[in-house]
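Filed under: proteins

Residues; backbone shape codes:
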Amino acid sequence: METKDPMFELLSNLEQIVLTRDVMQAGAMTESEVAMPEPKRIREISGMQIDEFALAMGVSVSSVKSWEAQRTKPSGSAQKLMQLIHSNPYLGRQLLER
């Protein structure tokens, strides 16, 4: 019997929840109208320092600083991961444990 990675399963399930919610909202709102919480707020809610958040997100510290200063916008996949972390603040810490 094949053993599945629990972290992979968790991320897959959370992604499906977010995608399902996005599809349900698509008829009512355009993508630009769906507000994503600010990266700094998500980081602070999850209790992570900038370097920890960058590691969990798989990006550089300078990228996180740029997002928080609103100089650049996170990629689509980074935004999805931030939505997952926002939905479950403990997820960020779990990603650091790997």
Remarks:
- The chain has a mean pLDDT of 80.
- Helices lie at 6-26, 39-46, 50-57, 61-68, 76-87, 90-96.
- The radius of gyration is 14 Å.
- The chain is about 65% helix and 0% strand.
